[in-house]
Amino acid sequence: MTRTVFKICGRDEWRLAENAGTYSGNADDARDGFIHLSAADQVAGTLARHYAGRDDLLIVSVDASALGEALKWEPSRGGALFPHLYGDLPLAAVTEVAAIAAPDDGSGA
């Protein structure tokens, strides 16, 4: 089982989470009913598909074991299992926050 999962979000979005003490997700997460996360090998594809051209991004590393049963691995792109968090992301589960760049053209390169 993967020990670390990742959330990509904007800097302002993460600042709000830090002030609130928890991360409730973005508009896409709210629409789908869970917080979209990625495994390490899924991050590049997620960046290219959903965040191309953005320069305000952070990658939030999360201890998957700290999320308990709220973390579900479910089929998504191409049938691959993606981590989905049903509930808020507690900041205590976050192990690192760093800047990340997305490709300009959505190519993933």
UniProtKB/TrEMBL annotation:
Any single Pfam family the record assigns to this protein: DUF952
Highest taxon in the source lineage: Bacteria
Protein name: DUF952 domain-containing protein
